[in-house]
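Holo prediction. Input below; ligand is adenosine monophosphate.
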Amino acid sequence: MELNIKDTFNKELPADPNKNNTRRKVFDACYSFVTPRVPSNPKLIHVADEVAEMLDLERDTHSEEFLNVFSGKTVYPKTKPFAMCYGGHQFGHWAGQLGDGRAINLAEVKSNGQYWALQLKGAGETPYSRTADGLAVLRSSIREHLCSEAMHYLGVPTTRSLSLMLTGDEVLRDMMYDGNQEYEKGAVVCRVSPSFVRFGNFQILAARKDHKNLKNLADYTIRNFYKDIQTEGKEKYIEFFQNVVNNSLEMVIHWQRVGFVHGVMNTDNMSILGLTIDYGPYGWLEGYDPNWTPNTTDSRNHRYAYGNQPGITLWNLVQLANALFPLIEETKPLEDILESYQQNFDQKYVEMMSQKLGLTQINADVEKLIEDLEENLQLTETDMTIFFRELPRVQKKNTVQEAFQKVHKAFYKPIELAGAPAAAWGKWFSAYLSLLQLEEDKDETRKFKMYDVNPKFVLRNYMAQLAIDAANKRDYSVIEELYEVLKHPYNEQPEYEKWYAKRPEWARHKVGCSMLSCSS
Ligand code: AMP
Ligand code: MG
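Structure of the complex:
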């Protein structure tokens, strides 16, 4: 196995001089060197073949060396693994130093002209582990591995996942934080991304008034990942911030489009590249509900609920602006950028929603239609994915009743053709059909354009849970099958029709299907 090592982070930024793997506060440095924990009996469960190809590793995935390097058993020659130092706001409160508590960066590589950082998640403790063990359990590793790849194929900016392995070790977890500890299977995922730098990497340096390293880190990030920025001085950091704002906005628009709820949008979980990162208690909207969050820790406040994600992205960007302020020393340019976020978001959101509806013109009528739709989807429990996937079948010549019938599959309880909800839908479809008459495209053309933005297959919470339940019995076939289905989320794939269905009733209140804890 040959990796073309091209390390940058641990070459261009200052390291913690302390080489001991003891938990501590780390100052004047961006990371600490640390060696992954040796797993007792690593076993490969799944490789994302396209990621392996991207890294030129497709011929090596069954080798002993692949198993050893990507389980943390051996360190690849001439590499110096490390854990990053970062801070963050958790649930709105500054939490101080956090850092890679259970992520260890192995190396950066160049392959096929692209640069990739490789990072193990669950490979043991680091100086940033605080009170936890640095390990990950199988259930959360399956969820991270499958969802990273599913998001990529949905066209959502995300970190990737190369491999999923069992460590052979047991990990003690109190899954629902109710005092019931249990041993679970330990696992390791190898995440792949151009960079794993987060908002929190900047925040910790700013909080400590380490402006020298704050500048070092900003220069490093711009030099390596925002290469188009050509300005110098303050302008350079302003342009950098504008780029991060644009990328973060792009990311959250995609989340809203596909019904993804991250669950823990703390600033340490915000990638500086605008990638979806840290798949924990995330979930997918089934019944459309802006107030829904899968995260039990957030069940009271709903801070990170679906409908709040765009606003929280802005809140997090404000924290990043504060962290970058010492490099700019002017509030006006930062405020201007932050102010334009809301306007840009509103515009992009309407564009995205009108695409989902198959409407090419944007005007006040379309905006009203979108608002009314959001209300109607909440009248009775309505599956978001199925609604938008069935809607393309509506034809210009349909009557209101015919059009309404086409989306019936999306309702969790059959909706009567009379009564208030039906009346509201009748009104909506009548407005929708009139707008469709103004569209130039034929029904068939519009249908396929709509299919391209309205996925048929997403990783519903219960689907991931079925993969987990089977894997706990050493049956990895569901992981394999879901991975294949989710590679082509916009295709019809009739052979996988069973995964195009509303959440089954048994999953409504089952742990892992409707609610998830941060315990992972
Ligand atoms: P999260 O909410 O998963 O993003 O984690 C917040 C912080 O806790 C990060 O600094 C993680 O690295 C750390 N963390 C989470 N789980 C563990 C664990 N099992 N062991 C050590 N650190 C952890
Ligand atoms: Mg995290």
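Residues 233-258 form the longest helix (26 residues). That is the main takeaway for now.
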